[in-house]
Amino acid sequence: MKDLLRIADLARMDFAEILALSESEDLGRPLDGKGVALVFQKPSARTRNSMEMAVVQLGGHPVYIQKEEVGLGTRETAEDVARTLACYHAIIAARVTDHRDLDAVAAATDTPVLNMLSDTDHPLQALADLLTVKQLLGTIEGARIAYIGDANNVCRSLAEACALTGAELIVASPQGYGLETVMETLPQGVRQVADPAEAVAGARIVYTDVWVSMGQDAEAAERLRAFAAYQVDAALMARSDDAWFLHCLPARRGEEVSSDVIDGPRSAVWRQAENRMHTARGALAWMMAR
């Protein structure tokens, strides 16, 4: 395998190897003298900074490419963009609106392709999430994680990662916004419920994300109504097993999470954010070793 497009494409030992590489302080310089294309159809502070620093730490040169510079699927076909970037770079990483563009890029070239986010998947976030769980709890296997809110691309990749590593994931979402909307079959160890209190009971980790993601502004009012009872606040956290709080960021305080939770002593969101850089480095090193 040369690409990293979905967590579901990985074997259990692949996931474990990437996490081990992410924690290693001596990965050498596998990207020495090489470029990595970072194609952004959607902007992101954490993804750009974590990826650029990860490439630099491996000795490479990151090239940030805005959507207007390539016109992926509009100005040029995804295949032609892929073949062009492959002329210059050792890895093509892309943050895209439509996952099918990533599949087209990967099919068009032998250059490894890394998914920095798509509408269906966010593998780099799931890697950072479970590295954070490992650091907080000492183990991933058997960890009980409650995800509260919209079962989006972040939730889907987290569910696949939990199934790979033996963690238990309980997702609480209102009707029409659960994992059944993005996955045909729930992975082993993953459960969907409606009640947030049921999800957090006994949980060691409580996780949430924004209710209105980028590109969903037209649905904002409807989504805010649907998720009104799904805020992670101090009362909900108190129903957990003294859980740590995670959020992939950016956060909207007062909507999906209260300020006292995200800024509180059991919040690990900044460690989680830092781990985006470490797991990006691990993923890149793993891809270069294939």
Secondary-structure-derived class: alpha/beta
* SSE pattern, N- to C-terminal: HEHEHHEHEHEHEEHEHHEHH
Strand order within the widest sheet? 7-6-5-8-9
Question: How many structural domains in the coordinates?
Answer: 2
Shape: globular
What is the CATH first-level class name of the largest domain? Alpha Beta
Q: Which consecutive residue ranges, at least 5 long each, have pLDDT under 50?
A: none
Strand-residue fraction?
15-25%
CATH topology descriptor of the largest domain? Rossmann fold
CATH architecture of the largest domain: 3-Layer(aba) Sandwich
Report the biggest beta sheet as strand number plus sense, adding barrel if it closes: 5 strands, parallel
> CATH superfamily of the largest domain, please?
Aspartate/ornithine carbamoyltransferase
How big is the Rg? 18 Å
Q: Count the helices. How many? A: 12
Q: Which whole number gives the mean pLDDT?
A: 96
State the share of residues found in helices, binned by percent.
40-55%
Number of strands: 9
What is the terminal separation in angstroms?
7 Å
Outline the secondary-structure elements.
Elements (H helix, E strand, L loop, with lengths): L11 H12 L11 E6 L4 H13 L3 E6 H4 L7 H9 L2 E7 L3 H10 L4 E5 L5 H15 L6 E5 L4 H13 L2 E5 L17 E4 L2 H5 L4 E4 L11 H7 L7 H4 L6 E4 L11 H4 L6 H20 L2
Parallel strand pairs: 1-2, 1-3, 3-4, 5-6, 5-8, 6-7, 8-9
